[in-house]
From TrEMBL:
Active site (catalytic residues): 260
Coiled-coil boundaries: none
PANTHER family per the UniProt record, alphabetical: ALDEHYDE DEHYDROGENASE, ALDEHYDE DEHYDROGENASE-RELATED
UniProt-listed InterPro entries: Ald_DH/histidinol_DH, Ald_DH_C, Ald_DH_CS_CYS, Ald_DH_CS_GLU, Ald_DH_N, Aldehyde_DH_dom
Record Pfam families: Aldedh (PF00171)
Keywords assigned: Oxidoreductase
Organism: Actinomadura rugatobispora
Protein's UniProt name: aldehyde dehydrogenase (NAD(+))
Entry keyword annotation includes Membrane: no
Domain spans labelled Aldehyde dehydrogenase: 16-482
Catalyzed reactions: an aldehyde + NAD(+) + H2O = a carboxylate + NADH + 2 H(+)
Amino acid sequence: MEGILSERRSYVAGKWVEGDQPFAVENPADESTVTELPSTPLPEVERAIVEARSSFDSGVWADLAPAERARVLYAFLDHFAASRDALVATMIAEAGQPTSFAERAQFQAGLAIARGTIDLYLSMTHEETNPVPTDELLRGRVALSLRRHEPVGVVAAITPYNGAIIMAIQKLIPALMAGNSVILRPSPLTPLSSLVFGAAADAAGLPPGVLSVVVEGGSAGAELLTTHPAVDMVSFTGSTVVGRAILAQAAPTIKRVALELGGKSAQIYLPDAVEKVAAGALAVVATTAGQACVAATRMVVPQDRKDEVIETVSKAYSALVVGAPTDPKTTMGPVVSAAQRERCERFVALAVENGGRVARGGGRPAGLDRGYYFEPTVLDLPDNSNPAAQEEIFGPVISIIGYRDLDDAVRIANDSEYGLSGQVYGADTAQATAIARRLRTGAVNVNTALFSAYAPGGGYKQSGLGRERGTDGIRAYQEVKHMVVGELR
């Protein structure tokens, strides 16, 4: 396929490595093969780990001054930026993402997050005086008590298909800026675009072993990364099911684990904000086809206005243009695979079996015979116990649920094993904010949204452990050391 990234080799410890056991990277828009990509041989994954360990223990990267690490990473990002056209084309081809999403939500936002993360790191204090009562200092003959934030060591970064580039950036830049050595393993569904990071490391002159990019069609390499004793931390974004497996795999070696997992987020509309439902509903499915862990796929609205909301949302979804991601008119592309489309179909059927109603969509769009397309779908659910309200579908399906009063709205929103994100809309900002404070979720947007290097995101409950972005996202890749200093007597 013309215009996409040309590299097909893995990047291991500063060298490009020929792979074995080729696997097909499929274009979900037309079911064609984008390329045959050779897997990183398992001994090379092992070597990436060993060399990462060596590079970290030698201090070749970790011992550099933060300003020097920043200089190299700015050069790393300059190469990334120069790859724009081929990178965007690759993301469109392997993920089926409309051009606007690949260019703005991944490439442009990714660059902004990366540069902002470097700036944020440089603004933070990484060695600070530790508060200790004066009498304890005197009694212990202590001259100084310090708290240092030091790199964790070797980090395995495992990324998902739905935001391969921006999710990688959210892991790579804070981890590298903190002085860690990193092995990146992207999703087998969208591995090709992530090879840009190997090229960027090469161009910027990162010391060998500080960054490797390994690809595979299966999971053997990922399992090695999550179990190897030389790996100190695993950072994973993906499903809760896989997150649980990673926790179990990491347990014998007591690795630090950071997980951003599934979500079933709710968007609550106060009675004075119901006219905003069309925009909120479109945000769930437009450009991403609902394949976003933070997507607010449960719309919680006043029961006495539920029919009005269903009509409004159905009309908004009918206006969406579903089609080829490269067509400028397209506002929603396909889901990533046949299995993902079948999951959408299965949950629509389960919704109906359990008393729900399909108000709009529910199947494959007419006229699109090839590609993994699914209609933007509106489900009218009788209550929050419906399977479509409880399970993450990860497709263009929104569920509309009525509430009796605001206490009931909060109950519905919190009635989930997930807690990744949430939204509250209300003309009375104070009231809407009070509702937001009651939601058991890692982030809540009240009448607006913010995606920034300076704002953390992450989950409560089974939506994960730890945070990405913000100061918390940087501290995730650091250990805390207490140093006490006294005079020798």
